[in-house]
Amino acid sequence: MNATPLTDADLERLQNLLDALPEPLEPLDVSALDGYLCGVLLQPRPVPAEQWLKWVSDVEGRPAPPGTALDELQALVRRRHAEIDHAIAQRDWFDPWIFPLDDAEDDDSAGDDDEDNPPQDAVLPWVAGFAAAMDAFPALMASPDPALIEPLALLYLHFDPEDLEDADALLAVIETLEPPADLPEAVQDLVRALMLMADVTRPRAVKPGLRPRANTRKGPPPRGRR
After folding, report:
1. Is 219 left (phi over 0), alpha (psi -120 to 50) or beta?
2. pTM to 2 decimals?
3. Greatest alpha-carbon span in the chain
4. What is the pLDDT of residues 141-198, one digit of tens each?
5. In degrees rounded to 5, what are phi and psi of residue 153?
6. CB under 8 Å to 143, separation ≥6 — which residues?
7. CB neighbours of 180 closer than 8 A, spacing ≥ 6?
8. Residue 111: is its pLDDT beyond 80?
9. For 151, which of 83, 160, 196, 205 could close a Cys bridge (C-beta 3.0–4.6 Å)?
């Protein structure tokens, strides 16, 4: 599978293709799509493309009209899927598609960005996409492994606690966590959480006689996009 990273032009084209899908379809936007793909890739067992692709074009899994536009859309999505798959397999940093909120429409926002635009607001669409994958493919959330609780809490802390029903263990850990101070920290926590989950659901093979080496790379801050 082609794992060539998508360019900014590819990303813009992908969003346009998603926006062009006809009603009543409700496609994911690119940020939610990115979180969704991570949720798919962290499942304990690989999810076939024919099962996860349908949720990209519509949150209810309704089929999109076939044709060249859908083929192009799915080709771009598969490339991003392959790129993230490679990063997770290598435990390497990648840039999630999380975008700083636009302050241009808020005349009072200058000098008060942290209060008016907390990092949780920018991260929430991505986490909502991840949660959509958990709804469609519940095997990860159903795992009894306690090592998954903290990394999941790092993601779900961006939700309103009232939205987390029947998640007492998750809420208990969320209450002990400090919200990220800024967007770079929020993104760094997100990628770290994904790699911690991968250690449980996608453990890397270690050759006999060798000890795994800790990955201490924190990665760069998120790239701003418009």
Report:
1. left
2. 0.85
3. 61
4. 999 999 999 999 999 999 887 777 767 788 889 999 998 999 999 999 999 999 999 9
5. -65, -35
6. 44, 200, 201
7. 119, 120, 186, 189
8. no
9. 196
Burial of 65 (0-12, 13-18, 19+ CB in 10 A): exposed
User: Can you tell me the distance from the alpha carbon of 206 to that of 208, in angstroms, rounded to the nearest whole number?
Assistant: 6
Residue 127: enclosing H or E segment and its boundaries? helix 119-136
**What gap in Å lies between CA 216 and CA 212, rounded to an integer?**
12
Q: What secondary structure does DSSP assign to 24-75, as a single string?
A: T-----HHHHHHHHHHHHTSSSPPPHHHHTHHHH-TT-PPPPPSHHHHHHHH
CATH classification code of 8-98+119-201: 1.20.120.740
Give the span between the Cα atoms of 27 and 63, in whole angstroms: 11
Q: What percent of the chain has pLDDT over 70?
A: 84
Residue 14: CB atoms within 10 A of its CB come to: 23
Q: How many CB atoms lie within 10 A of CB 22?
A: 7
DSSP 225: -
